[in-house]
Protein: Integrase zinc-binding domain-containing protein
Organism: Lithospermum erythrorhizon
Amino acid sequence: MYDEELYKKSCDGPLLSCVLQEDIPRILAQVHQGWCGSHIGGRSVAVKITLIGYFWPTLVNDVMNFVKKCNVCQKMGSAQRQPTTSMTPILNLVPFAM
């Protein structure tokens, strides 16, 4: 406790401000969708939140669930690059013979 506010001591940075339950959705939305609208992944959002100076006990689980429910990320996610059918080998080797 410092000046009537609860903090958590981090091992490599400043004191992390403990967040109230009602502030969590706002912080998640601002970091994931706001500022530059980067829509980064769950672990990156969790790291950014701790670098900003916020903390709550279920941080990682809340961030992962929030990113999974993001509509823009689900629609514009990276396309699967694997072919839908198995590839067939080239059987005619005559054009490659020297």
